[in-house]
Amino acid sequence: MKTPVLDALKNLMEENSVSFHMPGHKGKNTLINWGEYIPYIDTTEVEGMDNLLEPRGIIQESQEHAAKVYGSKATYYAVNGSTGSIYIALATITKPGDKVLIQRNCHKAVYNALILNRLQPVYIYPNYNENHNVLTGLYPEDIDEALTENPDIKAVVMTYPNYYGVCSDVKAIADIVHKHNKILMVDEAHGPHMTFSDKLPISALEAGADIVIHSTHKTLPSFTQTSMIHVGTDRIDLNKLRDRYQLYTTTSPSYLFTLSNEIAAAYMDGEGRERLDKSIDKVNEVISRLQQIPRVEVFVGDSEDETIYDKDNTKILINIDGIRGSMVKKLLRTKYNIRLEMADFYYALILTSLMNEDEDYEKVIAAIEDLAKNAPYEEINWVNVKMPIPKVIMRPADAYYGKKEQIKLKDAIGRVSAAPIIPYPPGIPLIVPGEEITQEIYEHVLFLMDNGIEIVGLMGYNKDNVVVVE
Ligand SMILES: Cc1ncc(COP(=O)(O)O)c(C=O)c1O
User: Fold this and answer.
1) CA separation (Å) from 308 to 284, 386, 436, 444?
2) 36-51 tens-digit pLDDT
3) Less CB within 10 Å around the terminal CB: N or C of the chain?
4) Is the CB of 227 under 6 A from ligand 1?
Protein backbone atom coordinates (compact mmCIF):
# COMPACT_ATOMS: atom_id res chain seq x y z
CA MET A 1 0.00 0.00 0.00
CA LYS A 2 1.35 3.43 -0.90
CA THR A 3 0.73 5.79 2.00
CA PRO A 4 3.53 8.37 2.02
CA VAL A 5 1.55 10.86 4.08
CA LEU A 6 0.67 8.29 6.72
CA ASP A 7 4.29 7.11 6.84
CA ALA A 8 5.60 10.63 7.29
CA LEU A 9 3.04 11.44 9.98
CA LYS A 10 3.90 8.25 11.88
CA ASN A 11 7.58 9.22 11.75
CA LEU A 12 6.72 12.67 13.00
CA MET A 13 4.75 11.16 15.85
CA GLU A 14 7.61 8.86 16.78
CA GLU A 15 10.04 11.78 16.85
CA ASN A 16 8.02 13.08 19.77
CA SER A 17 9.59 16.49 19.37
CA VAL A 18 8.92 19.50 21.55
CA SER A 19 6.58 21.84 19.70
CA PHE A 20 6.96 25.59 19.72
CA HIS A 21 5.04 25.55 16.49
CA MET A 22 1.40 25.73 15.49
CA PRO A 23 -1.13 24.28 16.17
CA GLY A 24 -1.69 25.62 19.68
CA HIS A 25 -2.80 22.25 21.10
CA LYS A 26 0.85 21.11 20.87
CA GLY A 27 -0.28 17.52 20.43
CA LYS A 28 -2.30 17.38 23.65
CA ASN A 29 -5.94 16.66 24.46
CA THR A 30 -8.24 19.01 26.31
CA LEU A 31 -11.73 18.14 27.60
CA ILE A 32 -11.94 14.99 25.44
CA ASN A 33 -9.48 12.37 24.32
CA TRP A 34 -9.80 12.75 20.55
CA GLY A 35 -8.30 9.34 19.88
CA GLU A 36 -11.32 7.67 21.49
CA TYR A 37 -13.85 9.58 19.39
CA ILE A 38 -12.36 9.83 15.90
CA PRO A 39 -13.63 8.66 13.42
CA TYR A 40 -17.03 8.00 15.04
CA ILE A 41 -17.90 11.65 15.50
CA ASP A 42 -17.03 12.64 11.96
CA THR A 43 -20.61 13.08 10.84
CA THR A 44 -22.70 15.32 8.61
CA GLU A 45 -26.07 16.91 9.22
CA VAL A 46 -27.94 13.71 10.20
CA GLU A 47 -31.10 13.99 12.30
CA GLY A 48 -30.48 15.40 15.72
CA MET A 49 -27.39 17.22 14.54
CA ASP A 50 -27.24 20.80 13.30
CA ASN A 51 -25.95 22.59 10.20
CA LEU A 52 -23.01 24.99 10.47
CA LEU A 53 -24.28 26.88 7.43
CA GLU A 54 -27.67 27.52 8.97
CA PRO A 55 -27.39 26.71 12.68
CA ARG A 56 -30.65 26.34 14.59
CA GLY A 57 -29.83 23.79 17.27
CA ILE A 58 -26.69 22.58 19.05
CA ILE A 59 -24.30 24.60 16.88
CA GLN A 60 -26.31 27.75 17.43
CA GLU A 61 -26.23 27.08 21.18
CA SER A 62 -22.51 26.42 21.05
CA GLN A 63 -21.75 29.57 19.06
CA GLU A 64 -23.88 31.64 21.44
CA HIS A 65 -21.84 30.29 24.30
CA ALA A 66 -18.60 31.13 22.46
CA ALA A 67 -19.93 34.67 21.91
CA LYS A 68 -20.43 35.01 25.68
CA VAL A 69 -16.94 33.67 26.34
CA TYR A 70 -15.40 36.16 23.91
CA GLY A 71 -17.75 39.04 24.76
CA SER A 72 -18.87 39.39 21.14
CA LYS A 73 -22.31 40.24 19.72
CA ALA A 74 -22.11 37.06 17.64
CA THR A 75 -19.49 34.40 17.00
CA TYR A 76 -19.31 32.05 14.01
CA TYR A 77 -17.18 28.92 13.89
CA ALA A 78 -15.36 28.56 10.59
CA VAL A 79 -13.58 25.63 9.00
CA ASN A 80 -11.24 27.11 6.39
CA GLY A 81 -8.81 28.94 8.60
CA SER A 82 -8.57 32.68 8.95
CA THR A 83 -8.06 32.68 5.19
CA GLY A 84 -11.68 31.67 4.59
CA SER A 85 -12.91 33.89 7.43
CA ILE A 86 -11.15 36.91 5.93
CA TYR A 87 -12.90 36.27 2.59
CA ILE A 88 -16.25 36.13 4.38
CA ALA A 89 -15.65 39.19 6.55
CA LEU A 90 -14.31 41.46 3.83
CA ALA A 91 -17.15 40.48 1.49
CA THR A 92 -19.58 41.31 4.32
CA ILE A 93 -18.32 44.81 5.00
CA THR A 94 -17.82 45.91 1.38
CA LYS A 95 -19.45 45.78 -2.04
CA PRO A 96 -17.40 44.95 -5.16
CA GLY A 97 -15.41 47.99 -6.24
CA ASP A 98 -15.37 49.68 -2.81
CA LYS A 99 -12.33 51.50 -1.50
CA VAL A 100 -10.66 50.06 1.60
CA LEU A 101 -7.72 51.06 3.78
CA ILE A 102 -5.36 48.11 4.14
CA GLN A 103 -2.32 47.65 6.36
CA ARG A 104 0.23 46.89 3.65
CA ASN A 105 1.86 43.99 5.55
CA CYS A 106 -1.41 42.06 5.78
CA HIS A 107 -1.45 38.34 5.14
CA LYS A 108 -1.93 37.23 1.56
CA ALA A 109 -5.50 36.13 2.36
CA VAL A 110 -6.40 39.83 2.53
CA TYR A 111 -4.93 40.40 -0.95
CA ASN A 112 -6.86 37.41 -2.26
CA ALA A 113 -10.01 38.97 -0.80
CA LEU A 114 -9.18 42.27 -2.54
CA ILE A 115 -9.04 40.41 -5.83
CA LEU A 116 -12.19 38.36 -5.19
CA ASN A 117 -14.18 41.50 -4.34
CA ARG A 118 -12.47 43.76 -6.90
CA LEU A 119 -11.70 46.24 -4.13
CA GLN A 120 -9.68 49.40 -4.51
CA PRO A 121 -7.00 49.45 -1.79
CA VAL A 122 -5.36 52.44 -0.21
CA TYR A 123 -2.33 51.16 1.66
CA ILE A 124 -1.01 52.19 5.01
CA TYR A 125 2.52 51.02 5.73
CA PRO A 126 3.72 49.57 9.04
CA ASN A 127 6.58 51.32 10.78
CA TYR A 128 10.05 49.89 11.14
CA ASN A 129 12.28 49.64 14.21
CA GLU A 130 15.88 49.98 13.13
CA ASN A 131 17.38 48.98 16.48
CA HIS A 132 15.73 45.58 16.32
CA ASN A 133 15.14 45.25 12.57
CA VAL A 134 11.45 44.44 12.95
CA LEU A 135 8.30 45.79 11.36
CA THR A 136 6.17 47.43 14.00
CA GLY A 137 2.65 48.83 14.22
CA LEU A 138 0.64 51.70 12.81
CA TYR A 139 0.36 55.28 14.04
CA PRO A 140 -3.35 55.91 14.72
CA GLU A 141 -2.83 59.46 13.35
CA ASP A 142 -1.80 57.99 9.97
CA ILE A 143 -5.15 56.22 9.80
CA ASP A 144 -6.94 59.45 10.68
CA GLU A 145 -5.09 61.22 7.88
CA ALA A 146 -5.80 58.49 5.33
CA LEU A 147 -9.51 58.50 6.19
CA THR A 148 -9.66 62.30 5.99
CA GLU A 149 -7.95 62.27 2.59
CA ASN A 150 -10.16 59.42 1.31
CA PRO A 151 -13.65 59.95 2.71
CA ASP A 152 -15.00 57.30 0.31
CA ILE A 153 -13.10 54.50 2.11
CA LYS A 154 -15.62 51.97 3.45
CA ALA A 155 -13.53 49.92 5.85
CA VAL A 156 -10.12 49.58 7.47
CA VAL A 157 -8.30 46.24 7.68
CA MET A 158 -5.41 45.79 10.09
CA THR A 159 -3.36 42.93 11.51
CA TYR A 160 -3.13 42.72 15.28
CA PRO A 161 -0.86 41.40 16.71
CA ASN A 162 1.70 40.69 14.01
CA TYR A 163 3.54 37.37 13.77
CA TYR A 164 6.16 38.63 16.24
CA GLY A 165 3.55 39.79 18.75
CA VAL A 166 3.88 43.52 18.02
CA CYS A 167 0.64 45.40 18.73
CA SER A 168 -0.55 48.81 17.50
CA ASP A 169 -2.80 50.97 19.66
CA VAL A 170 -5.94 49.21 18.44
CA LYS A 171 -8.26 51.08 20.79
CA ALA A 172 -7.15 54.49 19.49
CA ILE A 173 -7.46 53.14 15.94
CA ALA A 174 -10.99 51.83 16.58
CA ASP A 175 -12.01 55.24 17.97
CA ILE A 176 -10.61 57.03 14.91
CA VAL A 177 -12.25 54.65 12.46
CA HIS A 178 -15.58 55.10 14.21
CA LYS A 179 -15.16 58.88 14.34
CA HIS A 180 -15.06 58.67 10.53
CA ASN A 181 -18.07 56.37 10.60
CA LYS A 182 -16.18 53.47 8.96
CA ILE A 183 -15.84 49.80 9.84
CA LEU A 184 -12.75 48.31 11.50
CA MET A 185 -11.90 44.71 10.63
CA VAL A 186 -9.05 43.21 12.64
CA ASP A 187 -7.13 40.17 11.50
CA GLU A 188 -6.34 38.82 14.97
CA ALA A 189 -5.32 35.44 13.55
CA HIS A 190 -2.38 35.35 15.98
CA GLY A 191 -4.29 36.56 19.03
CA PRO A 192 -7.25 34.30 19.95
CA HIS A 193 -5.72 33.79 23.41
CA MET A 194 -5.51 37.50 24.23
CA THR A 195 -9.11 37.69 25.47
CA PHE A 196 -8.27 35.37 28.33
CA SER A 197 -5.61 37.17 30.35
CA ASP A 198 -5.11 40.69 31.65
CA LYS A 199 -1.38 40.08 31.36
CA LEU A 200 -1.66 40.21 27.56
CA PRO A 201 -2.40 43.12 25.21
CA ILE A 202 -6.05 44.15 24.96
CA SER A 203 -8.07 42.04 22.51
CA ALA A 204 -9.44 43.71 19.39
CA LEU A 205 -13.01 42.96 20.47
CA GLU A 206 -12.47 44.67 23.79
CA ALA A 207 -10.88 47.61 22.00
CA GLY A 208 -14.05 48.13 19.97
CA ALA A 209 -13.29 46.48 16.60
CA ASP A 210 -16.39 45.76 14.49
CA ILE A 211 -15.37 42.37 13.13
CA VAL A 212 -12.48 40.20 14.29
CA ILE A 213 -10.94 37.11 12.72
CA HIS A 214 -9.23 34.40 14.78
CA SER A 215 -7.17 31.39 13.79
CA THR A 216 -8.25 29.30 16.76
CA HIS A 217 -5.63 26.77 15.76
CA LYS A 218 -2.71 29.17 16.03
CA THR A 219 -2.69 29.87 19.75
CA LEU A 220 -5.45 27.81 21.39
CA PRO A 221 -5.89 24.05 21.78
CA SER A 222 -7.71 23.48 18.48
CA PHE A 223 -7.17 21.68 15.19
CA THR A 224 -5.45 23.22 12.19
CA GLN A 225 -7.96 25.03 9.95
CA THR A 226 -10.25 26.07 12.82
CA SER A 227 -11.14 29.74 12.94
CA MET A 228 -13.77 32.05 14.38
CA ILE A 229 -15.41 35.21 13.11
CA HIS A 230 -16.48 37.53 15.93
CA VAL A 231 -18.85 40.44 15.48
CA GLY A 232 -18.14 43.25 17.93
CA THR A 233 -20.70 45.95 17.09
CA ASP A 234 -24.04 46.64 15.42
CA ARG A 235 -22.23 48.08 12.37
CA ILE A 236 -22.08 44.54 10.94
CA ASP A 237 -25.11 43.28 9.04
CA LEU A 238 -25.56 39.75 10.36
CA ASN A 239 -27.82 38.70 7.47
CA LYS A 240 -25.20 39.73 4.98
CA LEU A 241 -22.55 37.93 7.00
CA ARG A 242 -24.63 34.72 7.00
CA ASP A 243 -25.04 35.06 3.25
CA ARG A 244 -21.30 35.58 2.60
CA TYR A 245 -20.52 32.75 5.03
CA GLN A 246 -22.52 30.42 2.80
CA LEU A 247 -20.84 31.78 -0.32
CA TYR A 248 -17.38 30.81 0.91
CA THR A 249 -18.01 27.68 2.98
CA THR A 250 -18.15 24.07 1.92
CA THR A 251 -21.59 22.47 2.09
CA SER A 252 -19.96 19.65 4.06
CA PRO A 253 -18.37 21.47 7.01
CA SER A 254 -16.38 19.23 9.31
CA TYR A 255 -17.93 18.38 12.66
CA LEU A 256 -14.43 17.70 13.96
CA PHE A 257 -13.42 21.28 13.28
CA THR A 258 -16.73 22.61 14.56
CA LEU A 259 -16.30 20.63 17.77
CA SER A 260 -12.67 21.65 18.06
CA ASN A 261 -13.70 25.32 17.94
CA GLU A 262 -16.33 24.62 20.61
CA ILE A 263 -13.83 22.83 22.83
CA ALA A 264 -11.32 25.67 22.53
CA ALA A 265 -13.93 28.21 23.69
CA ALA A 266 -15.27 25.93 26.45
CA TYR A 267 -11.78 25.12 27.71
CA MET A 268 -10.78 28.80 27.78
CA ASP A 269 -13.95 29.53 29.73
CA GLY A 270 -12.66 27.29 32.54
CA GLU A 271 -9.37 25.53 33.20
CA GLY A 272 -7.71 27.09 30.14
CA ARG A 273 -7.83 30.62 31.57
CA GLU A 274 -5.83 29.63 34.64
CA ARG A 275 -3.45 27.57 32.57
CA LEU A 276 -2.84 30.52 30.24
CA ASP A 277 -2.13 32.81 33.17
CA LYS A 278 0.41 30.38 34.56
CA SER A 279 2.00 29.90 31.16
CA ILE A 280 2.45 33.68 30.76
CA ASP A 281 4.33 33.79 34.08
CA LYS A 282 6.45 30.90 32.87
CA VAL A 283 7.15 32.63 29.56
CA ASN A 284 8.29 35.77 31.40
CA GLU A 285 10.64 33.67 33.51
CA VAL A 286 11.95 31.93 30.37
CA ILE A 287 12.57 35.29 28.67
CA SER A 288 14.61 36.59 31.58
CA ARG A 289 16.63 33.38 31.70
CA LEU A 290 17.29 33.54 27.95
CA GLN A 291 18.35 37.18 28.27
CA GLN A 292 21.08 36.15 30.66
CA ILE A 293 22.72 33.83 28.11
CA PRO A 294 25.70 35.51 26.39
CA ARG A 295 25.05 36.17 22.64
CA VAL A 296 21.27 35.85 23.10
CA GLU A 297 18.88 38.76 22.56
CA VAL A 298 15.13 38.45 23.10
CA PHE A 299 12.92 40.99 21.37
CA VAL A 300 10.39 42.14 23.96
CA GLY A 301 9.46 45.48 22.42
CA ASP A 302 11.06 48.90 22.70
CA SER A 303 9.75 51.44 25.20
CA GLU A 304 11.13 54.29 23.04
CA ASP A 305 9.08 53.19 20.03
CA GLU A 306 5.45 54.37 20.07
CA THR A 307 4.60 52.08 17.17
CA ILE A 308 5.21 49.12 19.44
CA TYR A 309 2.27 50.01 21.61
CA ASP A 310 2.24 46.62 23.28
CA LYS A 311 3.84 43.21 22.82
CA ASP A 312 2.44 39.70 23.13
CA ASN A 313 5.42 37.92 24.64
CA THR A 314 3.95 34.45 24.25
CA LYS A 315 5.71 34.77 20.90
CA ILE A 316 9.36 34.65 21.98
CA LEU A 317 11.57 36.13 19.31
CA ILE A 318 15.24 35.38 19.81
CA ASN A 319 18.45 36.26 18.08
CA ILE A 320 21.76 34.53 18.77
CA ASP A 321 24.61 36.82 17.79
CA GLY A 322 26.51 35.35 14.85
CA ILE A 323 23.99 32.62 13.99
CA ARG A 324 21.29 33.16 11.39
CA GLY A 325 17.75 32.74 12.68
CA SER A 326 17.12 30.09 10.03
CA MET A 327 20.18 28.18 11.27
CA VAL A 328 18.98 28.37 14.88
CA LYS A 329 15.65 26.89 13.78
CA LYS A 330 17.34 24.16 11.77
CA LEU A 331 19.79 23.19 14.53
CA LEU A 332 17.08 23.09 17.16
CA ARG A 333 15.14 20.68 14.96
CA THR A 334 18.01 18.44 13.93
CA LYS A 335 20.19 18.43 17.07
CA TYR A 336 17.71 18.99 19.88
CA ASN A 337 14.37 17.69 18.54
CA ILE A 338 12.65 21.03 19.07
CA ARG A 339 10.36 22.53 16.42
CA LEU A 340 10.19 26.31 16.18
CA GLU A 341 7.47 28.17 14.34
CA MET A 342 9.60 30.16 11.94
CA ALA A 343 12.84 32.02 11.41
CA ASP A 344 14.25 34.80 9.30
CA PHE A 345 17.74 36.14 8.91
CA TYR A 346 18.13 37.31 12.49
CA TYR A 347 15.32 35.91 14.49
CA ALA A 348 13.85 32.56 15.37
CA LEU A 349 10.33 32.43 16.76
CA ILE A 350 9.51 30.24 19.75
CA LEU A 351 5.72 30.13 19.52
CA THR A 352 4.43 29.12 22.92
CA SER A 353 0.88 28.30 23.95
CA LEU A 354 -0.82 27.50 27.22
CA MET A 355 -0.38 23.84 26.30
CA ASN A 356 3.44 23.91 26.53
CA GLU A 357 4.73 22.24 29.69
CA ASP A 358 7.57 23.34 31.97
CA GLU A 359 9.79 20.59 30.58
CA ASP A 360 9.36 22.00 27.03
CA TYR A 361 10.73 25.32 28.24
CA GLU A 362 13.64 23.68 30.08
CA LYS A 363 14.56 21.82 26.88
CA VAL A 364 14.53 24.92 24.71
CA ILE A 365 16.53 26.99 27.22
CA ALA A 366 19.17 24.23 27.49
CA ALA A 367 19.38 23.91 23.70
CA ILE A 368 19.79 27.66 23.19
CA GLU A 369 22.39 27.82 25.94
CA ASP A 370 24.31 25.03 24.25
CA LEU A 371 24.10 26.66 20.81
CA ALA A 372 25.14 30.06 22.12
CA LYS A 373 28.13 28.48 23.84
CA ASN A 374 29.29 26.17 21.09
CA ALA A 375 28.02 27.24 17.67
CA PRO A 376 30.62 29.07 15.57
CA TYR A 377 30.23 32.79 14.90
CA GLU A 378 29.23 33.73 11.37
CA GLU A 379 29.38 37.24 9.92
CA ILE A 380 25.79 38.00 8.86
CA ASN A 381 24.77 40.53 6.20
CA TRP A 382 22.31 43.13 7.36
CA VAL A 383 19.06 42.27 5.57
CA ASN A 384 16.83 45.19 6.33
CA VAL A 385 13.18 44.11 6.62
CA LYS A 386 11.88 47.65 6.01
CA MET A 387 9.40 47.53 3.14
CA PRO A 388 10.06 49.51 -0.06
CA ILE A 389 6.97 51.45 -1.17
CA PRO A 390 5.93 50.58 -4.74
CA LYS A 391 3.55 52.73 -6.78
CA VAL A 392 -0.04 51.44 -7.10
CA ILE A 393 -0.95 51.59 -10.80
CA MET A 394 -4.21 49.65 -10.87
CA ARG A 395 -6.52 47.59 -8.68
CA PRO A 396 -5.18 44.13 -7.78
CA ALA A 397 -8.17 42.51 -9.54
CA ASP A 398 -7.58 44.44 -12.78
CA ALA A 399 -3.96 43.26 -12.87
CA TYR A 400 -4.83 39.72 -11.83
CA TYR A 401 -7.70 39.15 -14.29
CA GLY A 402 -6.26 41.26 -17.13
CA LYS A 403 -4.02 40.16 -20.02
CA LYS A 404 -0.67 39.01 -18.66
CA GLU A 405 2.69 37.80 -19.87
CA GLN A 406 5.67 36.11 -18.30
CA ILE A 407 8.97 37.97 -18.74
CA LYS A 408 12.44 37.97 -17.16
CA LEU A 409 12.63 39.80 -13.85
CA LYS A 410 15.46 41.98 -15.18
CA ASP A 411 13.17 43.17 -18.02
CA ALA A 412 10.28 43.91 -15.67
CA ILE A 413 11.48 47.27 -14.33
CA GLY A 414 8.75 49.81 -15.01
CA ARG A 415 6.12 47.10 -15.62
CA VAL A 416 3.03 46.39 -13.53
CA SER A 417 3.04 43.09 -11.68
CA ALA A 418 0.10 40.75 -12.22
CA ALA A 419 1.06 38.40 -9.38
CA PRO A 420 2.35 38.88 -5.86
CA ILE A 421 6.08 38.63 -5.16
CA ILE A 422 6.53 37.43 -1.61
CA PRO A 423 9.82 36.86 0.24
CA TYR A 424 9.65 33.92 2.70
CA PRO A 425 10.22 34.67 5.48
CA PRO A 426 8.53 36.89 6.50
CA GLY A 427 5.76 36.15 3.94
CA ILE A 428 4.69 39.77 3.41
CA PRO A 429 4.14 40.70 -0.24
CA LEU A 430 6.88 42.96 -1.55
CA ILE A 431 4.72 43.53 -4.61
CA VAL A 432 1.03 42.89 -4.96
CA PRO A 433 -0.79 42.68 -8.29
CA GLY A 434 -1.29 46.15 -9.73
CA GLU A 435 1.96 47.63 -8.36
CA GLU A 436 4.94 48.80 -10.41
CA ILE A 437 8.20 46.86 -10.29
CA THR A 438 10.74 49.64 -9.84
CA GLN A 439 14.55 49.53 -10.01
CA GLU A 440 14.58 49.65 -6.18
CA ILE A 441 12.24 46.64 -5.93
CA TYR A 442 14.27 44.74 -8.53
CA GLU A 443 17.51 45.34 -6.61
CA HIS A 444 15.83 44.42 -3.33
CA VAL A 445 14.63 41.09 -4.78
CA LEU A 446 18.15 40.29 -6.02
CA PHE A 447 19.61 41.19 -2.66
CA LEU A 448 17.13 38.94 -0.82
CA MET A 449 17.82 36.05 -3.21
CA ASP A 450 21.59 36.49 -2.79
CA ASN A 451 21.02 36.16 0.94
CA GLY A 452 19.14 32.90 0.63
CA ILE A 453 15.59 34.22 1.08
CA GLU A 454 13.05 32.25 -0.94
CA ILE A 455 10.92 34.43 -3.23
CA VAL A 456 7.44 33.10 -3.91
CA GLY A 457 5.89 34.42 -7.12
CA LEU A 458 8.98 34.13 -9.32
CA MET A 459 8.42 31.64 -12.12
CA GLY A 460 10.37 29.54 -14.59
CA TYR A 461 13.10 26.94 -14.17
CA ASN A 462 15.64 29.45 -12.81
CA LYS A 463 13.03 31.38 -10.89
CA ASP A 464 13.94 34.53 -12.78
CA ASN A 465 10.59 35.22 -14.47
CA VAL A 466 7.70 37.34 -13.31
CA VAL A 467 4.13 37.72 -14.50
CA VAL A 468 3.29 41.27 -15.57
CA VAL A 469 0.35 43.05 -17.11
CA GLU A 470 0.64 43.04 -20.92
C1 LIG B 1 -1.87 37.53 10.02
C2 LIG B 1 -2.46 36.29 9.40
N3 LIG B 1 -3.74 36.33 8.95
C4 LIG B 1 -4.32 35.27 8.39
C5 LIG B 1 -3.63 34.08 8.23
C6 LIG B 1 -4.31 32.91 7.60
O7 LIG B 1 -4.65 32.02 8.62
P8 LIG B 1 -5.07 30.50 8.37
O9 LIG B 1 -3.78 29.76 8.19
O10 LIG B 1 -5.78 30.14 9.63
O11 LIG B 1 -5.91 30.45 7.17
C12 LIG B 1 -2.31 33.98 8.69
C13 LIG B 1 -1.57 32.72 8.54
O14 LIG B 1 -0.46 32.55 8.90
C15 LIG B 1 -1.70 35.12 9.27
O16 LIG B 1 -0.43 35.09 9.68
Assistant:
1) 18, 15, 30, 26
2) 999 999 999 898 899 9
3) N
4) yes
Ligand 1 pocket, residue 109 CB under 6 Å? yes
For residue 388, whether the previous peptide bond is cis, meaning omega lies within 30 degrees of 0, is no
Residues of the chain with pLDDT under 70: 425-426
User: Are residues 144 and 221 located together in one domain of the fold?
Assistant: yes
Full domain range(s) for residue 119: 34-268
pLDDT in tens, 336-352: 999 999 998 889 999 99
Does residue 461 share a domain with residue 431? yes
For residue 187, the ligand 1 atom closest to its alpha carbon is: 3
Report the alpha-carbon distance of residue 153 to residue 350 in Å, rounded.
38
- Tell me, yes or no, whether 383 lies in a domain: no
Distance 225 CA to ligand 1 centre (A): 10
Whole-angstrom Cα distance, residue 332 to residue 350? Answer: 11
- What is the value of pTM for the model shown? 0.96
User: What is the number of structural domains in the chain?
Assistant: 3
Does residue 10 sit within a domain?
no
Mapped onto helix, strand or coil, the DSSP state of residue 77 is strand
**Domain-embedded: residue 388:** no
Considering the domain architecture, whether residues 317 and 401 belong to the same structural domain is answered as no
Q: Which of 77, 82, 168, 218 to mutate to test the pocket of ligand 1 (most atoms within 8 A of CB)?
A: 82
Ligand 1 pocket check for 82: Cβ under 6 Å? yes
| 165 pocket-lining for ligand 1 (C-beta < 6 Å) | no
